[in-house]
């Protein structure tokens, strides 16, 4: 039987791994590292570097596998994601069967935290044969790193904040009931689609890593800088992970905004 451990590794800085994460990686018999093509080879290399930094158990094996690619042109987003998850589960199963046929503990290094906008726990439910156990080891989330990097609090005093995706912001606008929105998984700079008056943005890419880039200021002036900076960074590295916080200042919301 297989025991599956999802280990949150934060935002790529080995110093941000918890002691629990280090212990779990060393207790695993097999660590799976996904390869996501030449353009994202640096992501696999970062996982290798983390393992090289924290592994002390010589018996732990590291195996790489080719990560299936999601069809981003599928008009049915949810169905497309479900098919992709099925393909990833099969890739996991093939790698485990080939490298740990008698069973044991398998670990996957999960960017950020397995519980927030990550698919590994849902993919684990599709794994056949089903694992005997599935465990999730928390990691530092990118929204924590964003707040720390900009030295800001995520929420105003006694006020809520919303964590959402670029797709949701783009399609539905500013979430009601809050003046602070943290946006993840946004490849289209969806802040372009909301009114800018009275809104401040705190943006970060590669937060917590040596490549970290931070920009902040009024959305109207800072948004175009972020778009240009993001495009240049993605071209240079072949990939980008970014996140941003939007804060609408009290009194800036008009009746028109509220009814939008």
What does this structure look like?
The protein is α/β, with parallel strands linked by helices and 260 residues long. Mean pLDDT is 91; it is low at 252-260. It is built from 8 helices and 10 strands. It is globular, with a radius of gyration of 20 Å. The strands form 2 sheets. It has a 5-stranded parallel sheet, sandwiched between helices. Strands 6-7-10-8-9 form a 5-stranded mixed sheet, with helices on both faces. The protein has 2 domains: 2-140, Tetrapyrrole methylase, N-terminal domain (Cobalt-precorrin-4 Transmethylase, domain 1); 143-259, Methyltransferase, Cobalt-precorrin-4 Transmethylase, Domain 2 (2-Layer Sandwich). Its EC number is 2.1.1.152. One of its GO terms (molecular function) is precorrin-6A synthase (deacetylating) activity. This is Precorrin-6A synthase [deacetylating].
List the helices and strands and how they pair.
Elements: E1 2-8, H1 19-27, E2 30-35, H2 41-54, E3 61-66, H3 77-99, E4 104-110, H4 120-124, E5 133-137, H5 142-150, E6 162-165, H6 166-172, E7 180-184, E8 199-205, E9 213-218, H7 219-237, E10 242-248, H8 255-259
Parallel strand pairs: 1-4, 1-5, 2-3, 2-4, 6-7
Antiparallel strand pairs: 7-10, 8-9, 8-10
Ends distance: 53 Å
Give the oligomeric state: single chain
Class by alpha and beta content: alpha/beta
Count the E strands: 10
The CATH topology of the largest domain: Cobalt-precorrin-4 Transmethylase, domain 1
As for the number of domains, it is: 2
Name the average pLDDT: 91
Strand content: 15-25%
Q: Can you say what the CATH homologous superfamily of the largest domain is?
A: Tetrapyrrole methylase, N-terminal domain
Shape: globular
| Biggest β-sheet: strands ordered side by side in the sheet | 3-2-4-1-5
Poorly predicted regions are 252-260
What's the CATH architecture of the largest domain?
3-Layer(aba) Sandwich
Largest sheet: 5 strands, parallel
CATH class of the largest domain equals Alpha Beta
List the helices and strands in order: EHEHEHEHEHEHEEEHEH
Radius of gyration: 20 Å
Helix content: 25-40%
